């Protein structure tokens, strides 16, 4: 399994001090968090894409390219890339370029985002969100796999004899995760292509997440990519830890109450009962995360949200120390126990290249 972190890149006042970081400070903090992730032994850093306040990561490949130059092992990803409002040609080129710069340490998560006004800002109609996701990805999939593409669809200018440059590194496109919280059409899309399916696993109950993953696994097998157990699943999760669980709850509560992703709603206690949010000791985080397998099955990637809601950088780095030193080593060992032999590892550029060489030999 791969373990890592994903960031939404919000610029939120610290409710305990009232201070709001500048955009520059927040961007630099995200870089520091990525570097810390590699230092403590995590596998993945993923950044969101947003084009509206209070968020700053409007150009994920710019940030990931900078991080690539300062890391050696970290897999660089997104959470998510807006397949609906970005031009698939630009996505193809940007991520192929990033692949070359990062020596293949790149994958990408496609998604529709959660901010409605973005659609008209980029000349799109939110009512076409699902159709845009389906058509744009169909083109992107071809651009990475065909040297010359002729294309005509509903939502962009036709292409005639077009070649996306640079070509993917080693002719191996970045592995694609399709991220969705509630849309069965996206789970179907991931299954159709044999790509990965990522559920952010923050807002919803375990029953809902299980239904989405079960649908994806069933349809993955239907399209002939393997057994349901061989489907590639990723999960998110949100944690806050201190050595003593009571200290964790007391410290995190003011941040939870104003968090842009779930503040001003249910209480912290209600939210932790009804969703995978875990606020407590490292052992509690371990136990809760291991329970994800009860409804998701054996899966390939676990990402944690740890740096939002105005939490100071110092606090986030302390969280990453706990995650890397006390939580992830135990999770790696426990998730490996009784893992069926047929369950694949998380895809990497190396494994995809090896698989391609086998099929073309």
From TrEMBL:
Membrane listed as a keyword: no
Low complexity bias spans: 9-20
Record's keyword annotation contains Oxidoreductase: yes
Keywords on record: Monooxygenase, Oxidoreductase
InterPro entries named among the record's database cross-references: Bact_Lucif_Oxidored, LLM_FMN-dep_put, Luciferase-like_dom, Luciferase-like_sf
Stretches the record annotates as Disordered: 1-21, 339-361
Record domain Luciferase-like: where: 1-294
PANTHER family assigned to the protein according to its UniProt record, in alphabetical order: BLR5498 PROTEIN (PTHR30137:SF8), LUCIFERASE-LIKE MONOOXYGENASE (PTHR30137)
Protein name, as recorded: LLM class flavin-dependent oxidoreductase
Protein's organism: Streptomyces prasinus
